[in-house]
Amino acid sequence: MSRRFGILLVLLVCLALALLAGVMFGSVALSTGDVWRAIRDGGGPGGVIIRELRLPRVVLGVLVGAALAASGTAYQSLFRNPLADPFIIGASSGAALGATLAIVAGGGQIGGGLSLVMVGAFLGALAAVAVVYALGAGGSPLTLLLAGVAVGTVLSATVSLIILVRDQSLQMVYYWVLGGLSGHGWNVMPALLSIGGGASMLLWALARPLDALAFGDEVAGSIGLPLGRARAAIVLLATTATAAAVAVSGIVGFVGLIGPHIARRLVGGRHGVLMPAAMMAGAMLLVLADLVARTAIAPVEIPVGILTSLLGGPFFLYLLRRRR
Amino acid sequence: MTVLTVRQLAAGYDSARPVFSDVDLRLDEGEITSLLGPNGAGKTTLLRAIIGLLPVRHGTVTVDGVPLAALSARQRARCIGYVPQREDLDPGMSVFDAVLIGRAPHRGWMLPWRRADLGAAEDALRQVDILEHRDRLLGELSGGERQRVALARALAQQPAVMLLDEPVAHLDPGHQVALFRVLRQLATAGTAILMTLHDLNQALQWSDRTVLLADGGCVASGRPQEVLTPERIRQVYGVRAVTGIVDGVPVIRYDSG
After folding, report:
1. C-alpha to C-alpha distance for A55 and A48, rounded to whole angstroms
2. Cβ contact (<8 Å) for B101 and A217?
3. Closest alpha carbon to B6 in B53, B49, B39
4. 3-class DSSP state of A129
5. Are B77 and A222 in contact (CB under 8 A)?
6. DSSP label at residue B63
7. CA–CA distance, B216 with A105 (Å, rounded to integer)
8. At what angle do helices A32-41 and A2-24 cross, to 10 degrees?
9. How far apart are CA A147 and CA A139, in angstroms?
10. Is the pLDDT assigned to residue A248 strictly greater than 60?
């Protein structure tokens, strides 16, 4: 118990260090003193850079990374499969279609830091998973998974078709799908924090049902878990967290797969501890990946989704080999 | 005293063709009942129907006179414990956590555990003699130890009725006997136990009553040596058998010819 708590504290310190690095490094390197002064009174050489550019960016990384990791952790329990990720039942292709439709419709800001593309992506993800759930809910998690694959394929094909017909939207859709944390200020945070962060916290509150589901439907049912309602609540919350995250960041792959895995290795399978550990690991991974993405070949910025997939692909293979 | 009564039960995965129908069964306090029958006779289906994992097509199941249909999932789980034949154990969970989750029917899904819940989980671990392994991870356990963890989880529910699906299927003889002894102690303490078995000799040695399922219904029930006659074994399992007595316990030997 105290060992797990100690690991959570260590993770928290590591996350704080990742945040500090994310704020210090970039096109202009700043010192810890600069960071301290900028946060304290907004002054100093990097005041504006820190307050208006880097700080919101790392906070965005934390929120998106944590939401994706919480969602991935929930799906890994629900499907009893360590290879499950936030996009396993169609959230990413739904978000992509929603974003594409919004881009084709002209995009544009709708106030409060939110854009039509964000709303399209958010609703697209929710709608896609709702369709998958309606098709596959009666059956086992496997039916849900297969329905997810089928619906995802149809939606992705639809995105390709739209791009083909309206080829001037190609570049914008492409950039959106690659995923990234750039170009957002503080004003997206309230919506992201309340929806994505709120859904993640509620998933944490469902730690005990998630524990039960990890033992399989037979055991979970025999200890009195209402399976249908529990599954529906978990899918709804995990999808809401994912949808809120990708609406702002685009499709950032593998953070929702790797974060939970690292956490599971560190603190074990009990979701009361695993969930916060996974959220911190996911947040840290995305902040660090984003730091590399904007400094590796500066001034060119790599979309962070490319980077997480570059690193995540090999890790995925490593997992597959270990499972044999 | 009768704790659980099954009357004219029909259940199955397909509503048009139930796996069995018209099954009657009663479980008494302090008794071990063995549920026998060839593969596909519906033994597991019957257990799953009793705990509400499968829709009941016809008939009733009552616990202490109350129909299960009138109970919430949580109320039902306080009355009936279940140990499935194989369970997906999360390898990253500790033994203690895996048993503690059995307190959910008493404590619910949100509130923090009370001292009484922790105590009940420890008692359950002590009953199956694995308290010293409480902090080990499930992934590190042997098959016999895992089966005992599963039983301890069901014990932590403190149910009046315990259902077990082939509890000794993957255990060596030493662990089989150890598990049956735990079940006997449980029964002596007042629990009504129903377990499915394939080994007829185990049914003869360890159960007080036997229910034999075959051909979509209940073929016979009663004391094991009365139910398991050579004619019935031939009729239900399609093998010839001879029965005898060794050290006062009836035994069955199958004819190899």
Report:
1. 10
2. no
3. B49
4. helix
5. yes
6. E
7. 61
8. 90
9. 10
10. yes
- Of all residues in chain B, the one with the smallest CA distance to A139 is B13
Question: Is the model more confident about B180 or about B170?
Answer: B180
- Cβ-in-10-Å burial (0-12, 13-18, 19+) of A172 comes to middle
B29: left (phi over 0), alpha (psi -120 to 50) or beta: beta
* Total CB pairs under 8 A between chain A and B: 86
Instruction: Give the nearest partner residue to B53 out of A80, A208, A221, using CB atoms.
Output: A221
Q: Would the CB atoms of A223 and B137 count as touching at under 8 Å?
A: no
Among all chains, which residue has been given the structure tokens 């399209």? A120
The answer to whether the CB of B252 falls within 8 A of the CB of B204 is yes
* pLDDT value for A139: 62
Write down the ipTM of this complex. Answer: 0.90
Alpha helices (runs of H) in B128-209, residue ranges in sequence order: 143-156, 173-188, 200-206
The span from the CA of B107 to the CA of B112, in Å, is 8
User: From CA B63, how far away is CA B51, in angstroms rounded?
Assistant: 11
Query: Three-state SS for B58?
Result: strand
SS (H, E, C) A49-84: HHHHHHHHHHHHHHHHHHHHHHHHHHHHHHCCCCCC
Q: With an 8 Å Cβ cutoff, are B102 and A80 in contact?
A: no
Q: How many Å lie between the alpha carbon of B151 and the closest alpha carbon of chain A?
A: 11
Please report, for the domain that includes residue A299, its CATH number: 1.10.3470.10
Residues of the domain holding A125 = 2-323
Q: Under the phi-then-psi rule, with left for phi > 0, alpha for psi from -120 to 50, and beta for the rest, what region is B180?
A: alpha
Cβ–Cβ of A224/B76 closer than 8 Å?
A: yes
Contact A52, A41 (CB under 8 A): no
B2-218: what fold?
Rossmann fold (3.40.50)
Structure tokens, B170: 């993957």
Phi then psi dihedrals of residue B20, to 5 deg? -145, 160
Q: CB distance A222–B84 less than 8 Å? A: yes
Task: Please count the structural domains in chain A.
Answer: 1
Beta strands in B12-55 (DSSP E): 20-28, 32-36
In total, chain A counts a number of residues equal to 324
* pLDDT score, position A1: 54
Q: Which residues of B touch A226 (CB under 8 A)?
A: 73
Task: Read off the pLDDT of each residue in A196-213 and give the average, rounded to a whole number.
Answer: 96
**Residue A324 in this model has a pLDDT that exceeds 50:** no
Radius of gyration of chain A (CA): 20
> β-strand B192-196 against B32-36: which pairing, if any?
parallel
Paired tokens of A129: 């998973």
Mean pLDDT of the B188-216 span: 94
Domain boundaries, chain B: 2-218
